[in-house]
Amino acid sequence: QLVEFRLAIEEINKNPSLLPNVTLGYHIFNSCGNEIKAAMSILRILSGTKEPVPNFFCGRKRKIAGFIGDLTSETTMISAQILSLFGFSQISFGASDPSLSDRVAFPYFFRTKQSFHGSALAMSKLMKHFGWTWVGIIGVNDSDMDDEPQVLTDYLSRDGICVEFTIKMSRYLDEFLDGGIDRIGKIIKKSTTNIIIVCGKAYKVIVVVVYLRRMLMPINKTFVFSPSASVIYNNVDFITTVFDGSFIFEPYPVYPRETHEIIDFINRTHPSKDPNDKLFENIMLTVCQCLSKDKIKNKVYKDLYNAHYVECNSKRTIKCVSYITSSLLAALSPNVHLAVNIMSQAIHEMHTSLREQSPERDREAHRYQYQIPRSQCTDSCQPGYRKAVNPGAQSCCYGCLPCSEGEISNRTDSENCIRCPDLEWPNDKRNQCIAKMVEFLSFTDGAISASLLSTTVLFFLITLLILGIFISYRDSPIVRANNRSLSFLLLVSIKLSFLSVFLFLGRPVDITCMLRIITFGITFSIAVSSLLAKTIMVCVAFKATKPGSSWRKWLGVKLSNSVVLFCSSIQIIICMTWLAISPPFQELDIHTSPGTIIIQCNEGSAIGFYSVIGYMGLLAAVSFVLAFLARSLPDSFNEAKYITFSMLLFCSVWITMIPAYLSTKGKNTVCVEIFAILTSSAGLLACIFLPKCYIIMFRPEMNQKSCLLGSKT
């Protein structure tokens, strides 16, 4: 590769028609296959100093035209990332990582390495030509070549060639040598195919095939090497013995080998031509074990490679140079020469274009003159549409149909549309999946939330005002006549019922889902239990007025407190059982409304939910019946007619709420629940307490004990 690079530069500089008055120079850095060393080399070139200074140029004035290299994808990737930041062009002659084809991430990167698809197609045709329809595949994989065996398998299957086995070997050869070789050898020995295709990095393929040849010595297997695994460029003495009888597939060179210019250039590399050529001295030290003039270097090489180095005489030197020359002729790398030619041609065209710049109107005319003509049967299907082949028409004559609901196509002439993930939805053009809209009844959800919040706060303040009035007039006859302790408890329960509305607003989470119905159910059950206790106390008080009545012993707060405590405890037990068995939880509904995620509360157990609602209905029904029967009792004790109407209102609201609750979805369901809570709670407040507040505030003459006792007669 080095010789090929220097030869290409020399040919370009000697060509008068290419880059006239311009001489190409070069700096050569060896990355040694190490990413850190590759990055340091790039920064040194850009800085112009031995120690890199990022973003600064400290050397003498020069013009960097571009970069050639590297051989491996790992080192090429890091250098391409750095050079893309500064806008320098780079052409690699060996990197094969598919991610380097991303023009957004690497806009200035190019390569002369043939893709997997081209070589896979050629190898498939070779197998078909010889009638080899039963083969095995060994992939000595690197991170950038993991897909090569799969690509090769796809092309083989198209030509009707079957793959008996596919072995993907680790990128780390030490794992292969520590036991993987035995497993692979057993698989190959048991196989019935005689053709084994080998793909992967050439320098790793050599190690693998040497071990496999030793294991399979009695068995006749033919190895076919893909272009990526071609070992013809490696200078190994035993290469002929190891790879005898194998097919080595390599790209056709873009220029002839062993021409007069190439041979003449290689002959000029003889050490006698330039005794101070340190590079060629290193080559002889590595290839032929010839000692150099530098004793320190000799010691380093001995310690590093554990080899025996000798002083080379003229005969050994001639033999070594002859071997290097023949190796160079056999190992010419067309990709390096092509990379240098492409870079020089691009620089030449850039210089030509700068010299021949014309006015804007001439450039526009030039573009129009060479506009590519269109030749299509039908217009291309744009993103958001898919191709629909018309029956009886040729495949290139097709119609375009928009993607179905929930699907997109993001490229032109898409065969099929792609369904978006569950949490995403197509945009208006149906060429991109975007996040679905989230729906729930928030505190800032327009007029609905504003009206519900204002109504809740208004009723809460009214309840608070009434509670303040009753506390201020707690010793007045009308407050004492209707069991003021129960009245206070009822007002507090109604106030908490109004406050429970805030649990229904905002983004539902598990804790708010559990507290919603349970909080309202317990507080409202206390309120209805207080009404039931009031009704029972009215009946008992009337019975106790008769002379010698045994009902007198039931008068007092014990009975009312017992009724409230007993009835409320049952509701608390129901709620705790519901939470223990199957509590409510947050649920994402992605199916009801297309393009929308409805965040709602799932009741968990429908039995638990309807048990809470049903128990409140049962208490209301019992209170309604008792209050209806006691409606004709004397007015001094009687709240029955107000309780009757309030329970009738409560039952009507909740009986109507059930079908509305079942027929709505999303935030509409929450609105139905809030409306039912506000209506039933406001009904209790208005029916039970507004008449008393009217008398206290506007008819104080009626708030006298004589008036209350007088109303009995």
TrEMBL record:
Residues 448-703 form the G-protein coupled receptors family 3 profile domain. The keyword Plastid does not apply. Pfam families: 7tm_3 (PF00003), ANF_receptor (PF01094), NCD3G (PF07562). PROSITE patterns: G_PROTEIN_RECEP_F3_3, G_PROTEIN_RECEP_F3_4. It is a multi-pass membrane protein. It is found in: Cell membrane. The keyword Endoplasmic reticulum does not apply. InterPro entries: ANF_lig-bd_rcpt (IPR001828), GPCR_3 (IPR000337), GPCR_3_9-Cys_dom (IPR011500), GPCR_3_9-Cys_sf (IPR038550), GPCR_3_C (IPR017978), GPCR_3_Ca_sens_rcpt-rel (IPR000068), GPCR_3_CS (IPR017979), Growth_fac_rcpt_cys_sf (IPR009030). The chain crosses the membrane at residues 452-473, 485-505, 517-542, 563-581, 612-630, 642-662, 674-695. GO terms for molecular function: G protein-coupled receptor activity. Keywords: Cell membrane, G-protein coupled receptor, Glycoprotein, Membrane, Receptor, Signal, Transducer, Transmembrane, Transmembrane helix. One of its GO terms (cellular component) is plasma membrane. This is G-protein coupled receptors family 3 profile domain-containing protein. It comes from Xenopus tropicalis (Western clawed frog).
